[in-house]
Structures are given as structure tokens and as C-alpha cells.
């Protein structure tokens, strides 16, 4: 009996020991090799890395550029067939509705950019180091960039200041008015101008000039011509940028980040992605989409034949304008002179957006069509000059200056002074706006230029005034907001 | 604990009586195999006298009163009674009964007699597995267990299967928790022949597994040796071939050309084939890719045991090639298993099982857009396989063919990959009889595996298609996964008074899984060749700053305490209760602890005095159970925000990697809660020849874990590497009935049969989706279309959401009279599909979409029979699924691709068709998701027919064999279905998005010839 007691005690002891050994602390473990997002920003490097993330979303703005053209009179949707990327097709036809996965992409990706910038700004006071203002200024520049895209596309948008949106905010935070959004953009850019260097610390990062140009643009979109002319004049006076003599070289690989480039979205051919995550590509997805369908021949690679320029856009160039054949590839002429062959896709016009066509010799690692290295020249000095010209002219400030800047652009285009414009007033306005189209065709600005100058209804087929100036909020977002956000008028 | 039952000691007795006594000697055999049954319990009815058979199956029982009855009992066999009249020597053949009530059901931590089981439990024996000859274990559950649906993701060798128990209750991981010999394991790589039994726990009984039990639990017991048996050596092997079970009816070259001409003409374009004569039938691409593929399996085993220990060993080799791609999609599996159990002392028992598995699988893109099968379906029959130079013909690079369709044979030729897995898993167990009635058990189970993967992207040009590779590369990975399950529990087992039987168990389980993966890519493979495809030779790197390497690691843990209690009064009233407390790293600190209670009750009505046992009704038990179970199968660390996003930009011309927020966290994350209710009845009738089990069940799954739940884009979740959080945001209910009947009888001594049928009905309804929209979307249909599948309150899980059609517009007048369909994107012409204006707002747009079908079967059935006549045996298994729909999504909507021949019945003019729309190259609305693309995928499949012949003992004994059986078997014999696609039973298994046919690799039909021999 005693033996039993001893054994039982021993057994129970063992049992209890093991039982107790398994305390709840067993499951207290940190995730393996993981950094907690709420316990970050402890060094300059942390801020820098988060800034890279904020820049990263710029690459997804390729779709803004594509659709900025397709929506306008510059290009047609194209593609393989009437059902190929229906979102593009509907925007081309101005029949788009709130059900449009491409508009949804713009919304989602630009807000992702806003959030990544705000992640830095949310923790801007956590750790101090020398040169922090530069990083904060870049973050604010980027937030302004994304906000500007969002307000252009969707009008009023929700804003939350220096904080990331969190789940549920869509049901609480209202859409700020367009004025408020622009006020935020202006504040961010004014801060950025004050704190950014004229020369970027590294190629690809924002400069003071970039912030000035974007601010000028934001003013122009609000018809604040005096403000616009002032800030753009500062930029021009600083003289950090100049027109590249040879227009042809701007859009080639060698022309990237050149003297004319005020702000440029950087792409590479070394790391791609698949259709499942287009925003993940480090390449310029738009370029493959612009590519000539089933192309076989010199210089270019083939692509999906979207965003095809119209005859009207091609014909808009005067004789002698060197820009036409740089901007628009006439495939018939090209094929007959080089022996190239090509396919005809949907809405084939015979023209392709040559500025952003895939070039041969690129590595295109990942996916041939989704990993093109062509940087997007987001703000060119020529654009700055034309914006300044427009501000001086439309603001009734100084037509002489306006003509000077306009003619700088034209002299480069024609290589002479014979094509200088001498008009004034409203006639000059027409010339400046026409020049914007020619200079910037294929670069994604046309639709918004037409809208902000009230010329969209008369220029774009199918455009419905008081509706199509902005695009519908994605249906999903309206549903998520649970009544907090109303759809844009007439959608 | 089988051995326990075999260890009945001799009980000495003295019998003082006046009656005459005699001695009976003899041998006890298995009636079907003729093998001796060692340890059969033999006792004289109504006395204390009992003995058991020796190692040769012999017995001698002395002093038996004349006129008394000797009872022979052996686990898993029917009791046999023999009336003694004289001294004699007899041979007793015991009949095996799968339904035997004394059968021990392994429930994981404990086991119970079948008779006492109060939960909804089904057991699959090794015999069933033997009949079905499955390559993977999961297949043995297909059609054999009511309430269980097994679907195959692909017919490719080694492809995965999904098990769903009692419906789809979650939008997340639906697979059951698998326990192998007590530890958490993986069913998919086990050799089916190593399995002794599989127990499927379908109801609240699984609650003892806490956060793991919600999807049901599958308890696998591997084979082990039997005590007191001579060494038994067996060999079994088979060889055979496989062929495709289905080919689609595609257009031949002439039909295709004519159709294309019509389509181009309707689109206002010139005819692509002005002259169709001489095109003939062209290339049958399916014939080109499908081939007969061999398979072979060999297995060797031996087992035996003394009175203190038993052993079992087996080794197997399986090799199977694919019906597409032959060696490019093959599967090799080698396994070795060792099982030992021994009594270390009177009190301490030891048991170990070890399994080593080696897998080698090569595969190719076998489903969906860009797969070999997809290319074979869509490549026109007008193209030849090879061009005049003997090279693979390129699919022309013209818009009508798109840029994804390539020559499927070239694709196969240029596919190179390899996957190898080495895994060791097993367990060690000690049982210690501390004092009478109290036993301690310590058990450690483990899995450790290493895998190597390699794929080679050959530099190749298909002439401007997306599959062109400009720079060769090789990607390799090494993955190491480990886990252990440590159990420690005490079991108290006693009977108080006469009738109060109590069993109580308390214990703890510690589980940890950890591992890591390492990935690397090298560029510029020497000679652009698979032979040189290795990181050691591919020295090229990606661009500046591009990461060519990647790794991950994980460490997940769970700590559980549990207790359960069984009480039986008089063997009639059965009660159990269980409680489990789980802590899991899957959940946030706020919600780490979960407690899961469950109760079951049973009433053996047939043991009541008022119940008169008749020949017609031998046994009746009523059961009920209720319990709360959990599910934690979600991504790791979902409660904490990590910087795992992608932040890559180009700075100074090089790729620079930063840090970005990854998937959004949900600190409130907690387990899914399943409330399971079940009532059931077990019946045995007509001398136990007929047994019936029927259950009604209802499960409500609350706090559904919805991963990557769509949320507003303003939160930044669409950034690269980010994603939506996992949220507890839904509820689903599954209700249904299960009914299973087995009938076993013999027509004569030499003619016996066994018939089984089971049927399950499922009523699935989503009760709640608690995100802002009230529904979740998923799946994909066509290119760039809206999500086709939804999970929404009031609807079945994963139902198809699209337009209802109302025939075909026959003329312009009909179009004019109908609400405008322009909002769908294109103009409408006669011959186009008419959609219903469901909300009657005078326009057809996305608001007119509705439920147009769902992939969940309303009824599933299984049917099997075995027929024995003398030395012949014939077995067949079938199963059926009714009411499940499938979306046809393997057709690419391009102008020049090949089509299924149903388009021959298209609309070509007024009155020609009211179901198949016109063909045209112009834009139409006919390709939006509508019920036109939804097909009834109900089916009846004859899964297996096997015919065997066993040679007579006297013939084979001379050559030293105890058993020799030859058989031939056909698997996946035939499928009766109206479904047009390859396989109505295939699905990717996803709760939201399953049921879309992206072009599934069909399950092959297999013909095999095999042998079983015992020495």
C-alpha cells in the first residue's frame, strides 16, 4: 500500500510538473524575422526606406497616363477587341460607369500612395536626425502628387491629414471639397519648395523645381493665374532646367533624367510582375500596352496596341514640326520603309504612341510587356514653359512673356524662328493650348487640359457636360462608405 | 489498445458438477482469408471458463459440460456459438464484420467500442482502401463516407485533393484536421496501404480538438503488428496504364474555317478562309497532347509479434506518368514504415511508428489561362503540329489569336521543373499503468521534411507571345518544415457498483510548427539547357538592386489543456462531456484563449427491457451531440502589422528596396466558432445483416475568418505586398441529413455479397457577411470582367452572380421592344443574348445580376457492392453528386480560337436558335457572365470496378504461400453527366470561386492488373 502511495505521488508530481511546465507563456513568441509597423522610424534609414515605399506608388500611375490620353481626343482605346480591357474601351467611348476596374485601380493605387506618404508623416516627430526636413518635404511632395491625381480624376476625396486611413474611416470621413484638397496640395508643395534642394540628392527623387512645377500646375487647374505665374517664373528664373535641343532624344533611354526633366517617374526593365499585380511591376506597364500589336521589325518591340493616336492628332502637326514623327509612329510608312510587319488591333488607326513604345534591347525581365524601362517624363520643362505662358496670358498678366515662353517651345520644335507666334489675348490662348497638345501628346495631360479649359464637351466625342469632367467613384467604394460618400453627379 | 483485448489471461476454474464433461479442441480461422486467428477468446456460456487460441490458432478447452455452448469472440468478427455434444476437434471460421459493434473506434486521445460511440463517426477500414486502390489516401473517402465530399484539383499525377466534411462552412480553409497516430499530420503524402483505419469525426465529438476541430477531424491509424502472430510476409503490386476519361468536342478544321468565315462576315470583315476545301479535319490537338501513360506500384511488408512485442514493416514504390506530358508530369513515391510495440515491463508499454516518404513530382501549368490544356482547346485545328522544317508550328502572331495561345506541344517541350520532398514522420508513445484504473500516457509525434524545387525558364520565342522568355533563368528553393505534437494525459477507467462505468481523461497537448524557406534565381543558364540549369552554373544576376533571393521563416505554437469524461450506465445510457482550452499564436493577444465545450449522449434502446429484440431489429441506438469547435486555419501573425509590403523604386538608375506596410493587421482576430448539433440513430436488423446509420446535423459557423476581405482602397491595401486584414465577419449554416445502409448476406456458402449505399443532403446558407457591402466577391471569369462569384447572406456560399438570359433576340423588333442592353458595353443585334431586366428599371445593367447557380451539390451519394463467389471477388464503388453547377470558362473569347462544337447550333437567322448566340468578330454583350455559361455539373461516377481471383489454399500452400490473389481493376470507369467540360467533379476547392472550370486536367481512367501474395 505504501508503495502505491509513493508511486501515485511520484506520478502525480510528474504529471503536475509537466502540466505546469506548459504555461501560457509558451505561446508568447514574437513573429519570426518581422518588423512591427507601429514600432518603426527609429533611424534615418527607417525614414529613407519608408520614403522609397512612397515613391514606389508613382509607378502605378502608368494607368493615369494611359487613360488621360484615351479619354481625350488624342487617342483611341485600341487593344485586341471591343472587349479587351473593357474599362479602357468604355472610357474611350465616354460610356464608363462606376463599374470600372481601371478607374478603381487609379483610386486604389493613388490612395495607397497617399497612405504611404502619410505613414511617414504620421511618425514625422518620432526620431530626429540631420536632413529630416528633406525627407519630410519629399513625403509631402509625394502626397501632393497623389492628391493632385485623385482630385483630377475624382473631384472631392477624403483626407485625413498626417495620418494613415484606417479601416472604418470610409464610413466616417467625408469627401473634402475640391478647394480643400487643393489647399492641402498647395500647403504641401509650399513646404516642399522651402525644404527641397534644387538638385536632387539622388536621381529620381523630387527637387525644389519639381515642387514648384507641380504647384504651378495645381494653381493653373484652379485658374489661379497670378499664383501660377509667380511660382513658375521662380522655377524658370532658377534656371536649373532647359529644353533639350533635339526633341527626338527626350524619349529615348539616353534622354532619361535629362536637363528638361523636372520630374520623372523612374522605371526599370529588371524586375517585373504579372497581370495579377500590375502595380507590383518596376517597369512601365503603359509602354507594353501602347506597343504595336504583333509587331516584327526594327527598333520596337510588340505590345497590346492600346492608346492609338487618332488621325486628327497626327494631322494637328504643321508641316515642318519635328515633333510629329517623334510623337506618333505612322505604321504604314514605317512598315514600307523598314519591311516591318504588324497586326491590326481593335480601333486600329495606323498610328502608335511613339514616345512610349517598347524599344528593342530591353531586358524585360519578368514579363515582356509589363517590364519596360521607359521612364515617364511627368513634368518636362517644355510643360513648365507652356504652363507659365498660359498663366501669363490667361491671367491677363503679360502676353509678351507668354509669347516668349511659347516660342521657346516652338523654336525647338521647328528648329527656326519662322514659326513664332505673335498673337495676343484669346488668340494667344488658343495657340498656347494647341501647342500644349502638340508638345505633350501621348503624355497623359490632354483630357485634363481640355476639361479645365472647358473645351472637353466640344472636342471629345460622347463627352457629357456636368458629368464627364470627373470620373465616377468606384461602385465598391460607394458601397464601403455605407452612405458616407455620394456618387459624383450624373453617374 | 488492441493488445489489451488480446491479453485475456487464462482463468483457472474448477467445476464440480454431476453432468458429463468433454474436451473440445480445434482451430479458429478467418472465414475469408483462411488465416489463423491468434488470441480468439473462447468461453463457455454462463460460466467463468475461458481460454484463448495459441499462436497457431489452436485451442483446447477441457471439461465442457455436454449441452453447453462455447462462444468464440474475436475483435472485428462476429461471435460464433457452438453447442457441445461430444469430445471432438472442430474448425471454426469466424466471419469478419466491418459493422461489428465491438470494433474499436480510435477517436484520437482515446478509443471507444463502436457500440458506445455517441458521436457521428464513420470508420474506413484498410479493406476499403484495398478495394479502391487509391493513389492518394483522400480518394478512399470519396463516396464511402456520408457527409464527406472529396474533390480533385487536377487529374495530374500527385495533384492535391480537398476534403469537405458536411458542407462548406467557411470561406477560408475547409480541410479537416488530420491526426496520424495521435499527432498532427498530412494525409496527402501517406501511402494508402500503410493505413489500418481512418476515423472521420463529423460532429461535436471533434471538440476535443478545440480550435482545430471545426472542419471535422480525420484520425488515421497506421498499421502495426499483432501480438502472438507468426511472421507474415506479403507482397502486392500492380501495373497498368491511364488514359483520359474525356475529350471535348471541338471543331475540326473545316468546321472551324466555315465558322470563322461567318464570324468575320458578321463583323463586317473579309473572309479569312475564302477556300475551305481541302482543310479536312486538321489537327486534333487533344489527341496530340493526351496519351496513354503507365503506372506501376510495388509493396513489400512483413509483420508479426510475440506475446511481449509486435512489429510491422513495409516499403513501397509507386510511379505514375501523366496522361498529358508523360514524364513531364510524373509522380514517384517511395515510402518505408516501421512500427514496433513492446511491453517494457508489466506496467510500461512502448509503441513507435516511423514513416519515411520520398516524393518526386514534375508538373506543368495544368489549369487555366495559359495551361497546356487551355492551349489545346483554343489552338485551331487548321494549324499543324510541326512546320515544314520539322519545328513546332507557331500560333500566328495576329490579333485574332491573342498573345496567350501557343502550340501546346512546344509549351510542354519547353517546360522544365522538378520537386522533391523527403519527409520523416512518426511517434513514440509510452503508457504507464500507474495504479489500478489509472494510466498515464506520454506521446510525442513529429514531422520533419525537406523539399527541393527547381524550375527552368528556357530562353524561347513563340513569336511575340506572352510566354516568350528573353533571358533564361533557373529558380530554386529549399523548404524545411517541422512540427511536433506532445501529448501528456492521464486516463482513469473504472466501474462502480455493477453498472456505473466511468472514464475520465485530463491532459495537455503542446504543438509547435516551425520552418523556413529559401529561394534563389540565377540568370543566363549555360547552353540554355535543363542539364545546366542550376544556380551553381547560372551566374547571371538580375538588375542592379534586384533581389534574386528570398526567404521566410515561421514559428507557430499552440498549447491546449483538455479533459473529457465518459459515463455509461448499464451500457445503455451513455454520456460524454469534453472541455478544451486552447492558446494559439494565430490570434492576437486580446483573444489568445479559447474554450470549447461539448456534450454527447447515447441511448441503446435495444438494451431496454421493454424492447423486444427480434430477428428484424437487433440493435437500436439513439445519439445526440452538441458542441462548440474552432477553426484557426488562417495566415500567420494576422493580428500584428508588419513591414512586409513591397517598396521598390528606381533610384540612381538602380532598384532600391525600402520598407512598406504589409497586410493590414487585425488585433482583434479570433477563431471561427462552429456550433455543431447532431442527432442520429444506429440500427442493426435481420441478424445484423443490415445496418443503418442516419443523422441530422446542423452547424452554424460564426465569427467566420474572412481573409483578405475587400475593404476600401483608401486604407492603402492595394499597394504592392499589402492586403486586407483577416476579419471575423460572417456566419454560415449547413444543415443536412445523412443516411447510410449496409447489407451483407450470403446466398450460399460459396456466394456472398455486401452492398452499401449512403446519401447526404446539404442545405448551405450564408447567414451574415459583416463587411460594408454585405457580400464578398471572388473568382474570375473571362478577361477583365466583374467578379463572378459571391458569398452573401441568404444565399449559398460561393454562388454565381450574373445575368439571367431569356433566349436570343430573333429580330430587331424584339431588341427594340426590350430594355436597352447598351450599358453592358456593346450594341445589340439579332442573334445576341437577351438578358432579363430583373429590377424592371427599363435598362439592363449590372444591377440586374442575380443568383444563376452554385457549385454546392444538394445531394451526394455513394454506392458500393462486393460480391464473392467461390474464389472470385467483384467489387465496385460509385458516387454521385446532384445539383452542383459549374461555370464554363475554358474558352478564350478571341475571334480566331477554336470552339466547342455546340456553336454549330448557333443563331444564324430568325428562328434558328434560341439558346446559342450568333458568332461575330464585332463587339457583343454575349460574353458577360450569364446563365448561358452555367452548366449543370451533376454526375454519377463509377469510381472503381475490381475483379479478383484467389487461388485455393491447397494449391498455393505447396509453394509456400498462404494467399495469392490476382485482380484487375478499372478506376474512374465512367462518368454519367451532361456537363460539357472535362471533369464535373473537379474544382480548385476554393469556397468562393470554386466551381469555375478554367480547363481542368481530367482525372484519368486507369486500368490495372495486380497481385497480392502472402507468405
TrEMBL record, chain A:
TM spans (from-to): none
UniProt keyword terms in alphabetical order: Cell outer membrane, Membrane, Signal
InterPro entries linked to this entry: SusD-like_N, SusD_RagB_dom, TPR-like_helical_dom_sf
Name used for this protein in its record: RagB/SusD family nutrient uptake outer membrane protein
Family: Belongs to the SusD family.
Chief place of localization: membrane
Source organism superkingdom: Bacteria
Extent of the signal sequence: 1-20
Domain (RagB/SusD): residue spans on this chain: 332-490
From TrEMBL, chain B:
Keyword terms of this UniProt record: Cell outer membrane, Membrane, Receptor, Signal, TonB box, Transmembrane, Transmembrane beta strand, Transport
Secretion signal, residue range per the UniProt entry: 1-21
Key word Transmembrane present: yes
PROSITE patterns: TONB_DEPENDENT_REC_3
InterPro entries with a match to the protein in the record: Beta-barrel_TonB (IPR000531), Beta-barrel_TonB_sf (IPR036942), CarboxyPept-like_regulatory (IPR008969), Plug_dom (IPR012910), Plug_dom_sf (IPR037066), TonB-dep_OMP_SusC/RagA (IPR023996), TonB-dep_OMP_SusC/RagA_CS (IPR023997), TonB-dep_rcpt-like (IPR039426)
Domain TonB-dependent receptor plug span(s) in chain numbering: 113-217
Superkingdom of origin organism: Bacteria
Keyword match Ion transport: no
Domain called TonB-dependent receptor-like beta-barrel: residue spans: 386-973
Subcellular locations according to the entry: Cell outer membrane
Pfam families reported for this sequence: CarbopepD_reg_2, Plug, TonB_dep_Rec_b-barrel
Topology class, membrane: Multi-pass membrane protein
Family membership: Belongs to the TonB-dependent receptor family.
Name of this chain's protein: TonB-dependent receptor
Source organism of this protein record: Flavobacterium celericrescens
